[in-house]
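Dear Dr. V.,

Thank you for agreeing to look over these. As mentioned in my earlier message, I'm a first-year student in the group and I'm still getting used to reading structure tokens, so any feedback on how I've presented them would be very welcome. I ran two proteins. I've put each sequence directly above its structure. The first is here:
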Amino acid sequence: MPKLIRTLLILSFLLYSNVAICQFFNPFPGTVVFESKKDPIKKRVGSPSILILAIGDYLISHSYNKSVSIHSSKDKGKTWSKISQVAPLIWANLFEHKGDVYLMGTAKGWGDMVIYQSKNNGENWSSPKDEDTGLLAKGLFHTAPVPIVKHNGKIWRAYEEAIYADDRRDFHAFAIVADENADLLKASSWQRTNSIRFDEKWINARRPNWLEGNIVVTPEGKLIDFMRFETWAGKNVNYEIEGMAKGKPRNEIAAIIDIDEKNMKMEFKNEPRNFVHFPGAESKFTIRYDSVSKSYWAITNKITSQVNSIESYDGNWNQRNLLVLLNSKDLKTWEVKRKILKWNEGVHLKTWDTFGFQYVDWQFENNDIVFVSRTSWYGFRYHDANMITFDRVQNFRDQPSKPVEDLIKYTQHPTLFTINSSNLKQESFSKGDFNVSIKLGAGLQKTEQGGVRFNVEKKSAKNENAALKMGRYFDIEINNKEIKHFSIETLKYLVDINMSGFKLKWLYSTDGVTYLPITKYFFPLPVKAQEYLKVSPPLYLKIYRPLNKINAKKGAILRCMIVGGSKSETTISFNEDIIIGGRAL
């Protein structure tokens, strides 16, 4: 059969079966190395690292299910196969030294510092049983897949530690070093610097913090620890800063710690030179030096929304939907050379949004950069990723010939039906072949102006169970007697209230008995935030597998719980249509 005819037949079948054409052509960004399929809500992937072996093969490591998995590619990243699994280990980076491959991280989250060795390119690994076999130090250590740096005959790496078990995100930064000719599995081969905590007095923020540092050799030949820097918004905080980063967004400031390698001492003087403008400083990054361009390169997440909310669910640090390639000649001034991956660039995302490319590790390969990403593609949320993906930046030193496409076009879902929510009431109606019933809980009453209101008890529903008991919810029941199956893939709505303090909790059921949560979050409802909320993307529901293929005759229920409030009578109404996306299967 001619190739053109075969292609047309495939396209005709896809159109006939109502499958999204865009997903057929490019359902994922890059090549999927690993996907958490069995239980992606509970078992997420993390901490990827990539290595190009001296023999030319690629290795990728990543955390999954309390261990680190190793994948190999012998065809330049086109296909991947899992070759080993290492435990106990997390937050590890790969590196090659004197013909052997190493993994260096911690035994658990905030755990002992460990290193593993493989003498057959990642297929088998040593076991860090004691101080002579890879157990380098005991304690509450933290790290990420950050670079190993070889400098003046020694091997350097950054770590952080927690001093107090009950405050593990109070990071103290330090570095470790070993001679290149030493046995890297022996604890006695490694020395460490002092550790430094970031003092809140140095910069005003909710809790200024540094973590996941990169050891870098400066143009002057000195060592620094280039730190990811969190400066989240806080109430009544002055966000002005002087020095190299003056006038820049707070989420684009990185911190530099000086290292005195002779005296094994780290020092932070809190001077203007210690803060640099670095777009993407809020996320983990990898910095490497390129001897061809005689400059430094990094891949990280640039934040495009400057909404500086003090709410943790609404902070602009909750977006990792734009991946950029940065370049600097001096480590002080950084330029965005190109955008690598983007999904819905410019939108203000929240902590429950489900797309992100993050924790990227990468390597040079001639004129290209090969990189690995912790990718959330219809994941539980942007942070809780379900995929490890591989990709390539071709001719990275050159300006790209065309801009990178926005991947939002691959996540457009057809509308199953809409509900006129401006006059939400208890009723049943048809939307094409779909039968829809709106049922109001006993704690909600119809108003003359439209919308619903709380009943005269004037009580606050403190939690989800209280809201259910008080009848402060409504159900959207959906079925279809004409088809076998359908899916529910997106949910979009806009709410208006006349008082603050309310939250929504969406749940779903496919049997009318068991109701499961959509995300683990309650969705706060700010007062007079209609314009702000309009730019929010819908809830993406593909990770909730029972909604992927619903028995059409039995149908499904979407339940909206109304939690919180006060003792005053309050009206809540949906300003625009409730839009439910999906398809008949």
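The second protein is here, in the same arrangement:
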Amino acid sequence: MTPAPDSESESELRARAELLRVTLDSIGDAVITTNNQGDVTSLNATAQTLTGWSTDQAVGQPLDSVFTIVNEETREVVESPAARALHEGVAVNLADHTVLIAKDGTERTIDDSAAPVQNEAGEVSGVVLIFRDVSERREQERGLRDALEYAESILATVREPLLVLDRNLRVITANRSFYEVFRATPAETVGRSIYELGDGQWDIPQLRRHFEDVSTEMDSAEIEVVHDFPSIGRRAMRLNVRRLVDDRNEARRTLVAIEDVTERKEVAEAISRSELKYRRLFEAALDGILILDSMSGRIIDANPFVQRILGRSLDDLRGLRLWEIGSLANVAENEARFEELRSRGHVRYDHLPLETEAGVQTEVEFVSNVYEVDGHEVIQCNIRDITDRRRLERETERQAAELADLDRRKDEFLAMLSHELRNPLAPITSAVRILGRQPIENTAQREAREVIERQSAQLTHIVDDLLEVSRITTGRIRLRIDRIDLRVIIDRSLEATRHEVERRHHILHTSVPATPLWVDGDPVRLEEVIVNIITNAVKYTDDGGHIELTAGQDAGVVTVRTLDDGIGVSAELRPHIFELFTQGERSLARSEGGLGIGLALVKQLTEMHGGSVTLSESSGLGSEFVVTLPVATGAVPAIPSTHALEAVAPAGALRVLLVDDNVDMVRVFQLLVEEDGHEVEVAYEGQSALAAALRFRPDVALLDIGLPGWDGYEVARRIRAEPTLSRTALVAITGYG
């Protein structure tokens, strides 16, 4: 039998165990013990709180089940230091960034260590694991680290060099600008006394004296040092030194901000040196100069030139305002402009009168600026005598007005000229047509008539060009938009130019698609566009040359191209090719005539249709003009039948009233109409025209617009007012187009 234990020894052991338990529960660190198998044998109260395991739950459990730890960053499970202490028999400290995961999933950052427990035989009989919750400390450390990084970031971005010194004036930190300006490295700077920096370049008696004053008598000081710094040369540095004190008003840090003021001092010295030069220029200037106080607007200085202009001395001018010397007679206006000058900093007055002491006025130009002198704003007014310039400006304005009036009268003249030229042209061409109908005509008569026909046609073309110039310059071109197939316009244009193409023996190739090219446009004006670009190619291509016209549709536009192998367009002429009265040189004879408005008209009409016209670049002879028009949008109309396009011939003879104040025109038209088998009545002015209409009851009335007395519009209104003439067709005859 085992002998009974000594009762006193058991009591002592229990007391010692209880003392140990109370001691462990009262300490702030958590304590876990294990046996030599790594199973938990005890937990103190703090360990139970941190792990979430009670003693009854934990005793006998593997330590890794009760004490689960992971790496804070990687979240990987970390081996317990107790396991290492148990296996290796040595004390082990936990690595940084370790997180304890409690039984309920709560996470805490911990700091721990483990040590083995040995028996009398020196064998490891268990492990003691001690750990503590350092989450709050870690948060504080993180906050301090963030604050430090924030402060260092601010220091790094400051443009001026900065130093932070400890109480012994040793460098704690320096910003990037310090290293860049003084060409130093952190290794040469941090931890060293400010007097040791740069191999002693900061060991300046003046600097030592000021640092001593800051450290003993004041919290801050501004120091300016002019010194030869070995790394950057002679510089003027302004140091702002400030003590940073703690709650007990003890200076633990000193902040030194360094500003390089070398250039500023040089500028100040240059200004000082130039003051005498300025004064000499001020006094010798041939423009008047006034210096005003910016607050009161009163004169404080005036150069000799302005004194001579006004006939007043400086003493007389000093203290006066601008309106008191005649620059602005209206006081309210002057004050308004003075406020404008103060707000904007500068103002310019043109054509202001200055009045001398004798009452003589001089036109001047004022240029005023606000600037600072010795910390005080002043206004400088530069005054220039512009009497002669104003005289020239008025002369120029008068000439410009005369030129504008001349240009207007020129446009009116062209419009009237074209009208007046049409008046004789109409009877001439009609008379030639009558001659051509005569059954008997000898060779000489026929050739003479053909010459008159050709030259009349050329003259008609020139008159039409004059009319177009008038329409372009006055903006009177109007479009009558309709949905049209551009192929029809191209066919008409080719027919209209066929005679000229054949006369010049040109070879004309055309390529037009079989499907319609629908556009929205004025058919008359679009035909004018196509005719003009074909005519242009004909004019500038030698006899027997080649002309190619192609049309197509792509990417929402219809394109018409003309390409010729003629003389082309010179580089000098290209920028102006679409301007009025511009044309290339064809020959000295200029047998083709023309006024140079065709391409200008093409450009304007095309753009009015929402399109464009361009002259393509060419490396050789010839020219290529490209006209583009937007494809018509919306429903496509049905193509009309051939029968719908056929003209309806009038049945039988008509009664025609012809009204015009041009006697030759009336006579020739009368002959033409009567030869066609119609009955004609004539009148030469408005009142007789109405009387003839009431008496004659015409089927058609051909009315001139520009009649003496009643004009053609009035005659038309009165005819329409007569019920008996309601079926009379009215046709205008006019040279105004």
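From my reading of the second output: The first strand starts at residue 30 and ends at 35. Residues 12 and 18 are 10 Å apart (CA to CA). Does that match how you would interpret it?

Kind regards,
E.
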